[in-house]
């Protein structure tokens, strides 16, 4: 890679960390940047997963208080998230480069639509909470969580929206508590996939390390702007970027 390409992925990682701290959807910026910088698509996805892991850790620690009250659920959900993340990683590594490249526009478009639907999901969860639907057993939720985790290990963008919707089906907790559980599940999915990817031989370590640092700095900057930038506005900007990127990939074939 040339220095210009390194600058591109560093900037993209910082932007991904920034928007993840405020609205989510950072992968829609960082992954296309890696491909544009010349990394093979599968290696770009693997490198991106490892680079963005620290951001998920920060988000989980920030909501630790809400997590401590839900340990019983985590006993069911986190093992399912770990298994699903590894299975998604196995699926990705065994997907040929040509096939994965052909799936990129569909994956990016799907992630964009998921991000666009996040407000709808949150509104549904709030209505469901007011209706006071009974809590379902945690073990029941581990199955859909595991299925969502497979997607997260395979590509990851939009995972938070899927997990939040899944948790809403099986839980009547407040949106704040569901967000905390969602954050921990996303962390476990990505860490499990990342650990598997360590042995894949497809990690671009110089890029991954630079991106991890940039994403952390971007996340810290995003935290400082919390309350000053409307998450919904930023989210729709990322959605538009994602749709445009997917269209470009479709045109290129």
In total, the number of domains comes to: 1
Span between N and C termini?
Answer: 24 Å
Question: Which residues sit in consecutive blocks of at least 5 with pLDDT less than 50?
Answer: none
Percent helix: over 70%
**Mean pLDDT level:** 82
* SSE run: HHHHHHHHHHHH
Judged by helices, strands and strand pairing, the structural class is mainly alpha
Q: What's the Cα radius of gyration?
A: 17 Å
Q: How does the overall form come out from the CA principal axes?
A: globular
Strand content: under 5%
Number of helices: 12
The total strand number stands at: 0
Question: Care to describe what's here?
Answer:
With 253 residues, the protein is mainly alpha-helical. The chain has one domain (3-252). Helices cover 82% and strands 0% of the residues. It has helices spanning 3-22, 27-36, 41-62, 64-68, 71-93, 97-116, 118-131, 138-154, 159-170, 175-197, 205-224, 231-252. Helix 6 (97-116) packs antiparallel against helix 12 (231-252) and helix 8 packs antiparallel against helix 9 (159-170).
Précis, in short:
With 253 residues, the protein is mostly helical. It has twelve helices and no strands.
Key traits:
mainly alpha, 0% strand, 12 helices, 253 residues
Q: How are the secondary structure elements laid out?
A:
Elements: H1 3-22, H2 27-36, H3 41-62, H4 64-68, H5 71-93, H6 97-116, H7 118-131, H8 138-154, H9 159-170, H10 175-197, H11 205-224, H12 231-252
